[in-house]
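The instructor's notes for this session suggest beginning with a concrete chain rather than abstract definitions. Hand out the sequence below and ask the class to guess, before any prediction is shown, which regions might be ordered.
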Amino acid sequence: MNEVFTFLGLISENHAFLFVSHVLLAAALALIVAKLSTSSMQLVPRGSQNIMEAFLGGVLFMGKDVIGEKLARKYLPLVATLGLFIFFSNIMEIIPGFEPPSGNINMTLPLAVMVFLYYNFEGIRVNGFIKYFGHFMGPLKILAPLMFPIEIVSHLSRIISLSFRLFGNIKGDDLFVAVLLLLAPWVAPLPGFALMTFSAILQTFIFMILTYVYLAGAVLISDEH
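After discussion, reveal the predicted structure:
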């Protein structure tokens, strides 16, 4: 990272400083957009309010297919906030002079752990401790000694899946465009920037929908399981 120019690097080239600064910048951008969208609410939305309502409507529509409308609305603040923060973190990779914090495992891992802890908490709160962990044992009691450790490993692997998918894709895009810049700095990077824009949106969508999927699996436990 020290070899790549960043505007914040003019203040300090310390890796931790640059990472934390870009994380705070992404959070600030998300807060500013949210504030601008709600500062002067109108019956007929326009401008930033219109964009935000379209975004929230899209997140809600996505969640309804996974977890149902009632629960999709309940968890909308969490999923939409994650979406805004991750999107602004991702999109920094296409802006010269900025480093995407989502290309660092130190950001994606805490986000994945937060989602993991929250959906397990919701599963226990809604279903109770015994019923929630009881569904880890499978439909047949005889399979419980085999199914329970498999389910535990499966749930823990979600932390790795969420964090490394986001980190790996954003970091990989960054390195890909860096190579293109070295080979043909004026022409070749243009398709790369288009790819990074698409990837930034796609990875945000994947993180949001997986959060809904994990919540659905935690709170919608059938009586048979």
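Then share the key points. The radius of gyration is 20 Å. Residues 103 and 171 are 5 Å apart (CA to CA).
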